[in-house]
Structure formats: C-alpha cells, structure tokens
Amino acid sequence: MSETTSPSPSELLKAEGNALFVNNDFTGAYQKYTEAIKHDSNNAVLYCNRAACAFGLGRYMDASTDATKVHTNHAC
After folding, report:
1. pLDDT digit string (tens) for 26-75?
2. Is 4 contained in some domain?
3. Which among 50, 47, 68 is positioned nearest to 59, based on CA atoms?
4. Is 19 inside a domain boundary?
5. Residue 3 lies in a domain
6. What range defines the domain where residue 41 resides?
7. pTM attached to this predicted model
8. Greatest pairwise CA separation for the chain in angstroms
9. Contact (CB, 8 A) for 71 and 44
10. DSSP string covering 5-72, please?
C-alpha cells in the first residue's frame, strides 16, 4: 500500500497562480505566487513565475528583482 501526500500550501498556491496566469490574470497570479513564496521562500520556480507576472504587468523592475533572486543554478 502506498502512502499519498497532500500538496503543500505553496504547491496549491502555485497551481492557483498557474491557472490565473494561463488566463492572463497577471495581478491575481502575482498575488498567488507571492503567498506561495511566503510558504517556500527558497523555491526558484515561484520567483520565476512571479517575475513573469510582473513583466506581463509592465512592472519591469519587480520582474528584474525576482529574476535576480533566483539562484544561479536555476534557469528562469
């Protein structure tokens, strides 16, 4: 019998953000990724996703800031 694990809060918020992003709701997605980062501040994908939202909103400095927070071993 295999044990299943529930998704973490950051994974749930990321999934919600992804759904909003696909529908071009960059503001909503940005908020979800921000909440997810509060739960998992070392997750490079969350920063990349939030940077993409900021870029879509024309918030280029915010996009740049998030992109530079990503560890150099991770591609955005």
Report:
1. 999 999 999 999 999 999 999 999 999 999 999 999 999 999 987 555 65
2. no
3. 50
4. yes
5. no
6. 9-69
7. 0.87
8. 49
9. yes
10. -PPPHHHHHHHHHHHHHHTT-HHHHHHHHHHHHHH-TT-HHHHHHHHHHHHHTT-HHHHHHHHHHS-T
